[in-house]
Design a protein that fits this description.
The protein is built from 15 helices and no strands. With about 280 residues, it is an all-alpha fold.
């Protein structure tokens, strides 16, 4: 693997992991452009790219994550009683979002494989655009970690399950589901990104199992320099993407991402149909 391609994959991973445009869908398109296996031959490198995006969430939301970490020990010390602490409620909500994923993770790979054709990715990108557009019609409420219900968190977790399909954006789906449940825009974004931490970490652990089974094949021809460059590119582009989403969300809509997903989805569908003919 060349250094420039490692950086390119890091940038693509970081941007599309957090922008509401579907990272898995774009990876399918990248594989199509550069040939089959352009991404799948480097399992360890893929794990490291996800680690880079993990770091970007930790850096961007360090204040919230630090409070959650501190309150976790207080929560355990008090016998798992919330006692009116907002971040303890936040913590329970995060745990609830993980529950639906246990039903999906065992078949995640099969679902991604079944829906990994460029034509289906294009169609699901249009679905992502529609969800982002409809989020503007969401009720203008202001739920936060202090007022959101356990059911709200569980519904957002279910929304996250659908995002395993390439073409459906995880961040877009979870943010919009939160908005439909009455979350404030700031909390919907914070909650969506912080709840991605256990999912990204869990996915990395599953991928590491394959790496351990065959470390030589997992590493491929990736050098240490490529790994470091990929991690840094994924982290920095991830931070830029998070800032962009927070800014656009604060403006009151996701129109730039609606336009982007619509254009990319349409082009992908047309190109796929032409290729089939």
């Amino acid at each position: 693997m060349s250094l420039w391609f490692a950086i390119l994959q890091g940038i693509v991973q970081g941007l599309t992991e957090f922008l509401p445009v579907s990272s898995s869908g774009h990876l399918v398109l990248v594989q199509t452009l550069f040939g089959e296996g352009a991404e799948s031959n480097y399992m360890l490198f893929n794990v490291l790219l996800h680690f880079g995006t993990l770091l970007s969430v930790i850096v961007a939301f360090w204040k919230d994550i630090k409070e959650l970490f501190v309150e976790f020990f207080g929560w355990v010390r008090d016998g798992f009683r919330i006692n009116g602490h907002p971040y303890r409620r936040f913590l329970v909500m995060l745990l609830l979002t993980i529950v639906p994923m246990f039903a999906v993770l065992p078949v995640k790979g099969k679902l991604e494989e079944a829906f990994s054709s460029p034509l289906l990715v294009g169609l699901l990108l249009l679905v992502t655009a529609a969800v982002l557009f409809l989020s503007e019609k969401a009720p203008q409420k202001h739920k936060t970690e202090e007022t959101a219900s356990w059911l709200d968190a569980l519904v957002v977790g279910v929304g996250q399950c659908f995002a395993v399909l390439p073409g459906l954006s995880r961040s877009g789906t979870t943010i919009c589901t939160g908005l439909f449940r009455g979350f404030s825009r700031d909390f919907a974004v914070r909650f969506a990104f912080i709840m991605s931490l256990p999912v990204i970490l869990g996915a990395n652990i599953l991928e590491m199992v394959d790496v351990v089974k065959d470390p030589a094949a997992a590493m491929g021809d990736v050098t240490v320099a490529c790994c470091v460059a990929g991690i840094l590119a994924a982290m920095l582009s991830g931070l830029a993407a998070i800032r962009m989403v927070r800014f656009v969300s604060g403006c009151g809509n996701f129109r730039p991402f609606v336009v982007y997903c619509t254009l990319i989805g349409t082009v992908t569908i047309v190109a796929s149909l032409i290729k089939m003919v």
